[in-house]
Amino acid sequence: MVWLAGLITLLTIVLWVYAFFDALTCPAAEVRNLPKILWLAVIVLFTPVGPLLWLFLGRPRETAVPEPEAPTAQTSSLDRLDPADFQQESDRDTPLGPDDDPEFLRKLNRRINPED
User: CA dihedral in degrees (88, 94, 97, 98; nearest 10)?
Assistant: First the structure.
């Protein structure tokens, strides 16, 4: 029976700490129903009920993030690629990587084949 009281006390403390720091770090413009400072006071003063009130009534609502469209079974993501896009000249005047740099390739060729 003592372990149950200890477990309830531990859960209450964890809930209080979570709610307090969640309210503390939440932007004031997004807090619902009460000003942020009053929510902090409610959480601190009404320990068992205050954190629950914050979670259900004061916490900002999560904005719905649109999920990306999943490719259908008929088309894969590679079907939408155009090979001509990879053959166009770059707008950059410097190479993107070592394999695009002609000078690097010449030096590499000299290192591999010093007799040539």
Answer: 120
Q: Model confidence over 59-86: pLDDT tens digits? A: 877 765 566 665 555 555 666 767 666 6
Report the predicted TM-score, pTM, of the whole model to 2 decimal places: 0.51
- Among 62, 27, 25, 21, residue whose Cα is nearest residue 43: 21
What does the alpha-carbon distance between residue 49 and residue 47 come to, in Å, rounded to a whole number? 6
The CA–CA distances, whole Å, from 42 to 25, 50, 55 equal 16, 5, 12
CA distance 9 to 15: 10
Residue 31 carries which DSSP code? -
Amino acid at 7: L
Considering only CA atoms, which of 110, 4, 109, 16 is closest in space to residue 55? 16
Q: How many other CB atoms are found less than 10 A from the CB of residue 19?
A: 24
On the CB side of 73, how many CA atoms lie within 13 Å of its CA? 0
